[in-house]
Amino acid sequence: MAVAFRNVTKVFPDGTVALDGFELTFETGEFVVLLGPSGSGKTTACRILAGLEPATSGRIEVGGRDITDLPPRERGMSMVFQNYALYAHKSVYDNIAYPLRVRGVPKQEIDGRVRDTARLLQIDELMGRRPGQLSGGQAQRVAVARALVWQPDICLMDEPLSNLDAILRLQTRTELKRLHAELKTTFVFVTHDQEEAMTLGTRIAVLKDGSLVQFDTPREIYHRPASRFVAEFIGRPAMNVIDGAIAGGRFRADGLELALPGRADQAVGLGIRPEHILLHGRPKEGAQAFRLDVKELVEPDMLLFVRRGALALVVRTKADLAGLDALEPGAEVHLELPGERLHLFDAASGLRQP
Amino acid sequence: MRKPWRMVALATLVVVLVIALTPYLWLLMTSFKTRLDALADAPVWLFTPTLEHYPMVFLDKGYLPLVGNSLIVAGVTTALSLAIGVPAAYVFARHDFAGKEDLFFFFLTTRMAPPISVVVPMFLFFGYVGLIDTRTSVILAHSTFNLSLVVWMMRGFFADIPREIDEAAQMDGHTRTGMFLRVLLPLAAPGMAATAVLCFILSWNEFLYALILVAFESRTLTVGIPGLVTPHGTLWGQVAAVAVVATLPIIVFTFLVQRHLVRGLTFGAVKG
Amino acid sequence: MNLSRWGSGILDRGVGPLFLVPALLLLVVLLVGPFLYMVGVSFTDLSFALPGHDGNFVGFENYRRLMREDPVFWQSFGTTLVFVSSVVSVEFGLGFALALLLFHHVQRRRFVLTLLLIPMMLAPVAVGLMWKLMLHGEFGMLTHYLRELGLLGPQTALLGNHDLVLPTVMLVDVWEWTPFVTLVFLAGLLSLPREPFEAAVMDGARPWQVFRDITVPLLRPIIALVLLLRGIDAFKEFDKVFILTGGGPGTATELISIYAWRVNFRNWDLGYGAVCAFMVYLVVLILCAVSYKAIYWTEGRAVK
Prior knowledge:
The structure holds three protein chains of three kinds.
Chain A lengths: L1 E10 L5 E11 L3 E5 L6 H9 L6 E6 L2 E2 L10 E4 L11 H11 L4 H14 L15 H13 L5 E5 L7 H18 L2 E6 L2 H7 L2 E6 L2 E6 L1 H6 L4 H6 L6 E8 L2 E4 L2 E4 L6 E7 L5 E3 L7 E11 L2 E8 L2 E8 L13 E5 L6 E4 L8
Parallel strand pairs in A: 3-8, 3-9, 6-7, 7-8
Antiparallel strand pairs in A: 1-2, 1-4, 4-5, 9-10, 11-12, 11-14, 12-13, 14-20, 15-19, 16-17, 16-19, 17-18
Helix pairs in contact in A: 2-3, 2-4, 3-4
Chain B lengths: L2 H28 L4 H4 L14 H8 L3 H31 L5 H13 L2 H15 L5 H26 L2 H9 L4 H30 L2 H6 L7 H4 L11 H30 L7
Chain C lengths: L1 H12 L7 H21 L19 H8 L2 H35 L3 H13 L2 H11 L6 H8 L16 H27 L3 H8 L4 H29 L3 H6 L11 H10 L4 H34 L1
Helix pairs in contact in C: 3-13, 4-8, 4-10, 5-8, 8-10, 9-10, 10-13, 12-13
């Protein structure tokens, strides 16, 4: 069964265009991540799918049925909110039971399902507490339990991890992956954190300025970014992109020249990820000499910030690479940019060149 | 599905507004009606207005000084309550000391105290010190309830100012007193204006204290009105004229302070 | 030199709690002192009307009289309770409903609200007069239309009829104070977080379930606050009823404040009047202590 955004546009009363002809289709059972910087429209897309926000124009379809005008309770979707939105005046048990109660599920069954779900999320010890007495991580689990207890078709999550501290965020990430594998529920997960997106999503939808830029598996997004924006947004440190031009089979930029045989003449951005640059201790055929500016140790890796004239690049390499310790700022390093690791983006549109 | 609901809502609202406003409109109209129109068997909605009641009651019957009394009482009460109450509110907002909340509760009780229970002892007391039938007695009486209003409202406004502002002002070299006068007071000024207007309204509208404490020269407008109502032959045009003068400025003020009204009327418990 | 150092020291530490002194002084001199004086008077036979009653100590005589020999006091106490419970519940219901209506269905609330607030901002004396004019037995505008509609007999006047006068006075109070309830509830509704409502909608709740399970529980502190503030104010009611009926006809609308006024300033029975005033104060003080708790409850919740 397919879930689809069909040419959805959302203009807020103040004139802000949050979504601009947004198109996206995915299958149930997936773990879809909506990824983008703030203001890209990812949260709006999620809320329109939920039915909390009406679309200005366009349609939402599930399994070919138009659900654009259905109220949230008839869409078979649940939601985990960024700040959890637990009912402060109800106990944990009553919070989780609420979706079942308003749907008129028999009392006996409610109890069983609430307890099963609580056990699944390891919060069965907390049933009598109030939300005010929970830690951030516990509140988050209660919110997830409330969203899953009635077995919705789709579970929406709007930046659910962003209020957790770093360690807890990693644990919960793994937990969500486990839940998805176990329950086979469709998850739609909104985040601005590319690492979260890469680890969680079966497919990632990257949004920019209210439109879909790329919808692909994490592997594809990393290895074949559809545009310079995606390339620079995914991966830390960000991909090096060098502005220049191809002429007569050679790429020329301020401070760099490379052979790129078989390429048409055009202005391009040449991209290479820091981890794909090869570092050599001495001059080598095809390698270029750079001057080392700053070294940063990010165990087990080392980041090298290098310069050559106006050109600045970042290189990521293993920290225990032989001879690395001896390199001091100012030293000369030799970098090789392997041809199969290069990405080319059109200078004007930013689109990937095949 | 939403449309019909909107219509019902709007219709209800219109009915509510008509009910809320008609009595006052009627009063306004009566103040411009001739005696004949005012006493007609069937209510008169369209009539040739007359201006005779206003000069009659304010000049010939001598009600003009009452307007002056009301202005003086409400004005001085407001100034006095602010002068004493604002510094106290600042202390409640920024200082901690033993018994603070109990003291605060005491301020609340003075606002809540039933006027009849306060005015009896005040009458005895002002009689003893010879202040009966002076504007001073009413000013002092009104200051008691307005003072606690000021303390309650202004505490909230001071509390709304982030403490970092205090700290920044002190790092900039202000003394704490200088900081209060030159930094916090200007920041709290809008709230203070609203508080002042509310104080003025409450004093201007007050009836029971003034009724008991003053009788002749120092009467306020509210105390003067019932004097025009007699069992036989009340001149309703004149009554209405006084009532209009007593209420129109308040309506203007209401528009001015509407945003802060909730806070003032709920002792800061609900912010508007 | 020394003096200026001392001066700047004071300025620097801030006079602090000293700022409270003028306020406290005013309240002590004008409220506490006279109040204690009144308690003293309540143990005497002070009266301006009876010769020889110039403040002789009579012990608990006045209190005994209040408890045992004054059915009129207890009757007015009863009238007051009927008045308070009726007007507060009607104002609560109407005001809350109106607030919900404004909250959900009206966009340009501020202007509408300001118009709605006019009744409660007018001087209560003026409100009394306006309604006396509207309800006048001979040429009252409302009286006329009620008679036209056959709802009122030709000889009956709402303010002159022993059975109708109390409900009428209550309706005027409802007219005056329902806007207050609306104002506070609207502010309360606007201050509520949006998330619990969205969560409930996502959980599948229908509008009436959202109201019952989310709106009402979240507004509970404000509900308590409104009930108590209105309760206390209604208990103190004097001005409007005094103008409308003077407590009559007979004692049909003699609320406790009006009774206390009559004992003190018509009968000039000040010793006994002090006891009456003291009783009114006591009831309000109790209500007040409860409402203070309610207000703090609200604040505590707001912080969370």
